[in-house]
Amino acid sequence: MVSAREADQQKLVTKMSVQIKDHVQMPEWAKFVKTGMSRERQPEQADWYYLRSASVLRKIYNDGPVGVEKLRSYYGGLHRRGHKPARFAKGGGKLLRTILQQLETAGYVTKEKKGRLITPKGQKFVDGAAKLTK
Fold this sequence. Notes:
A two-stranded antiparallel ribbon has the order 1-2. A two-stranded antiparallel sheet has the order 3-4. It is of the alpha+beta class. Helix 1 (9-20) packs across helix 2 and helix 3 packs across helix 4 (93-106). It has a single domain (9-31, 46-75, 92-133), classed as Arc Repressor Mutant, subunit A (Orthogonal Bundle). 47% of the residues lie in helices and 13% in strands. Strand 1 (77-81) and strand 2 (84-89) form a beta hairpin. It is built from five helices and four strands; from the N terminus they run αααββαββα.
């Protein structure tokens, strides 16, 4: 049996994003926002929100209790500041919070004191998607 840790991560996230569209809805404002301070424009892919929510679910599956701040630093990047040196900037927090809240209402994630943990239903979902990537 293939677990999510052994599967190809890019294939896993794309499979999960197709399946997660039934449980997660893209907010209206998400069409117009950047994903962080280090970005200059909004994403060009039409289904980027579902890819990001599948990636967040995989990150919670792998790293245990994860909070919004840790996810912000994971999805951050270099903020280019003209001719000044580039610095690291965190990703957007509201976007990640809404994804986590939607994953909670779907039953894939629970809120603990130290962050979000994956539920058995979420674990079954991720492992089922990992089987399909093989």
